Amino acid sequence: KKKKEESDDSEDEDDASGLRELLETAAGEKEKEAPASESKNRGAKRGSEAGRLDETLLPYVREVASLAKANDFEADEDRQLFVDNVWRELKMGKGEQLVRLITHKEGSTAVQSLLPLSSSKQLYRICRGLRGTMARVIFNPYGSHVLEALFGFIPRLVN
User: Fold this and answer.
1) Best CA proximity match to 49, nearest among 117, 83, 99, 111
2) Which residues, in sequence order, are CB contacts of 15 under 8 Å at separation 6+?
3) Of 33, 54, 103, 158, which one is least surrounded by beta carbons within 10 A?
4) What is the DSSP string of the chain?
């Protein structure tokens, strides 16, 4: 009986240390968001680059959203080529570019329109590109909508 109690205590300690690690990781992500160079600018918010897109990119993002929503492609091959080119152009494997895109009002709309047309491999790359940025994305009104839509495709990624 004493060994069973010790085993239960050990499991509780493992759970507590696992939770501590998770919280430390989340805290570490928050600290990474504000580089030391930004600390001089006391009025700047952490992750202030989120939601900022290059003005030259906005017309492209709008056109992508429009074409993806219409989904009016002659063949599946044309649709796949379009999606491949858009993800390549927007550099979706790059975490910071992805965060800027999905935390922007129009970028979020474009990404949400592209998700259903994307392959499992592309969806996986998006998920991988979001590593280390979840705190910023979750608490952004546009980013959280993209995550919600992305979570709907998780069964497709798992299977």
Assistant:
1) 99
2) none
3) 158
4) -HHHHHHHHHHHHHHHHHHHHHHHHHHHHHHHHS-GGGGGSTTPPTTTTTT---TTTHHHHHHHHHHHHHT--SSHHHHHHHHHHHHHHTTTTSHHHHHHHHTSHHHHHHHHHHGGGS-HHHHHHHHHHTTT-HHHHHTSHHHHHHHHHHHTTHHHHH-
Please give the pLDDT value at position 38. 42
On whether the CB atoms of residues 131 and 29 are closer than 8 A, the answer is no
Number of Cβ within 10 Å of residue 123's Cβ equals: 18
- Residues contacting 44, CB < 8 A, separation 6+: 34, 38
Q: How far is CA 43 from the centre of its chain?
A: 26
By C-alpha distance, which of 73, 92, 95 is closest to 82? 73
- Report the 10 Å Cβ neighbour count for 159: 6
Question: How much is the mean pLDDT over the chain?
Answer: 76
